[in-house]
Design brief:
It is built from 11 helices and 13 strands. The chain is α/β, with parallel strands linked by helices. Helix 9 runs parallel beside helix 10.
Length: 311
């Protein structure tokens, strides 16, 4: 076994906390190995003044980490699973998908009012078209605006009065020990999460058997099944993390339930459906639900969304 393993990560507080979570679990199993963290800036970290949807989403927060992995500069890369494109570069694989933190979104308002009681015209910040579309479907009287930056930066914008409220992923807020800032969790009946939200993905070189074997203790089979179903659905719909598609898979007693939504940018049109199947066939379930959504008109919605984003 190699004496040192280099773990690649982005440099944000959340990314570092997530990398440290993986390293801590590997150290418990392999105390004789030295784990070294290497921070790598990505395109998404460098471009902060432009909405994510305007700069594309193919590897926005992963491409540079993947290059370092392929070049042998790092031995594994820790990502938020929702940032990983559904198609990985040749030679790379997902070595582990962590146990999932609660995958939903949270609402944080400056004055403590819940989403239902926010006055009409209030400004809500988010970096996600998925959240924007579903929020507008629920509260079309709100103004939803793009807010970029890491979790702490966005919270500062809330405190400074730039926005009246924020919508963030619970997992990121929790991992940064900021749960006390949360006004309330948003039910998934209102806002389905992003594909893979709440889980960590550890990317590796496909032929690195030693690292893949080391990661077995981190891989969580129920989460992997749920996330694989979600990612198959996303790939079938030819979507990405900056297209308004929400999905959530849940495993219980050997069965996998999958729910998904495709929404127009203004929230006026939503297609939402669910399917259930064996947990050991997640890709088939994801493909089945995607086809059902397409039959219900999701393809037309997505075509219009893509044209709107590109214009």
């Amino acid at each position: 076994m190699r004496g040192e393993i280099v773990v690649g990560t982005r440099g944000s507080s959340l990314a570092l906390a997530q990398a440290d979570w993986v390293i801590a679990r590997l150290r418990m199993r392999y105390p004789e190995v030295r784990f070294r963290r290497k921070e790598i800036r990505t395109t998404g970290d460098n471009i902060l003044e432009v909405a994510l949807a305007k700069i594309g989403d193919k590897g926005l927060f992963t491409k540079e980490l993947e290059k370092a992995l392929l070049d042998g500069e790092i031995d594994l890369a820790v990502h938020s699973m929702k940032d990983l494109p559904t198609r990985l570069p040749d030679g790379l694989a997902i070595g582990a998908i962590s146990v999932r933190e609660a995958p939903g979104d949270v609402f944080i308002s400056r004055d403590g009012r819940p989403l239902e009681e926010l006055p009409p015209g209030s400004v809500v910040g988010t970096s996600s078209l998925r959240r924007t579309a579903q929020l507008l479907a629920y509260r079309p009287d709100l103004e939803v605006v793009p807010v970029r930056g890491n979790v702490l930066t966005r919270l500062q914008k809330l405190d400074d009065g730039v926005v009246d409220a924020l919508v963030l992923a619970w997992a990121g807020v929790y991992r940064l020990n900021l749960a006390a800032r949360v006004t309330h969790r948003i039910p998934v009946s209102i806002c389905l999460p992003a594909v893979g939200q709440g889980a960590l993905g550890v990317e590796v070189r496909r032929d690195d058997r030693e690292i893949i074997e080391m990661l077995r203790d981190i891989d969580h089979a129920p989460t992997r099944a749920a996330v694989l179903a979600e990612r198959t659905l996303l790939r079938r719909l030819e979507g990405g993390c900056q297209v308004p598609i929400g999905a959530l898979g849940r495993v219980q007693e050997g069965w996998l339930s999958l729910e998904a939504v495709v929404a127009s940018l203004d929230g006026r049109r939503l297609v939402r459906a669910a399917e259930r199947g064996p947990a050991d066939a997640p890709e088939q379930l994801g493909a089945k639900l995607a086809d059902r959504l397409l039959a219900l008109g999701a393809g037309e919605i997505l075509d219009r969304v893509r044209r709107g984003v590109e214009s």
